[in-house]
Amino acid sequence: MAEQEKQRRPIRSYVLREGRLTRGQQRAFEEFWPRFGIDFHRRRLDLVGLYGNPNPVYLEIGFGNGESIARMAQTNPENNYLGIEVHRPGVGRLLLQTAESGLTNLRIMRHDAVEVLDNCLDDASLEAVYLFFPDPWHKRRHRKRRILQPEFVARLARVIRPGGMFHAATDWEDYAQSMMSVLTASTDFENCAGKGIFAPQPEYRFPTRFEERGQRLGHGVWDLVFRRL
Ligand SMILES: C[S@@+](CC[C@H](N)C(=O)[O-])C[C@H]1O[C@@H](n2cnc3c(N)ncnc32)[C@H](O)[C@@H]1O
Questions:
Q1: Which class does domain 18-228 fall in?
Q2: Which atom belonging to ligand 1 lies closest to the Cα atom of 84?
């Protein structure tokens, strides 16, 4: 690849491994994407129109298989939820689950969350953003791919309303420390647990299969809960 071309391509926080869709997931795309999916376009979303009400919107970035966001949506029908994920099988699973559970307050996008933040969301339009177990990119040469960087925090600051929340969780200690420094350095957020302190796990964050696997391997878990000033 020409050097110039390489430089133009943005560094992404994921590598797309398409994986095979099960028949159920395939069917979910055909049947349920029109109802719960939102196609990506470079224009702002009309959130009130999408959900049919002005309830607060909670965004989960990189929902994996969607267990967490599906349970949050089920437990809190008075809130709206938006899930963004690039991995097709995970999106298929969440589409199925959304339809089977009869959820009306959940919508799904399959696209790079960074581009969705930049193009699709109005200033101060979100109540909270969740980033649970983002890819840790633990090799030193891959660290630039980590999603939680100062520019990402600036993007979050634009879309979260003043008083709204950002909550990240990770089971990689050095990523947890780097998240803490990046968030502490931002003048747009304050740490709800106190400066430099990790938060106890909030009761609304349900364990995912990914997290349970980490715990079986003896990983710790670090939660960071910050308020938009
Ligand atoms: C390690 S998994 C964790 C999944 C889930 N949150 C959990 O706890 O089980 C991270 C997920 O983030 C997704 N992801 C990474 N970068 C993303 C981006 N820029 N936009 C949307 N999804 C992304 C990946 O596809 C992957 O499914």
A1: alpha beta
A2: 21
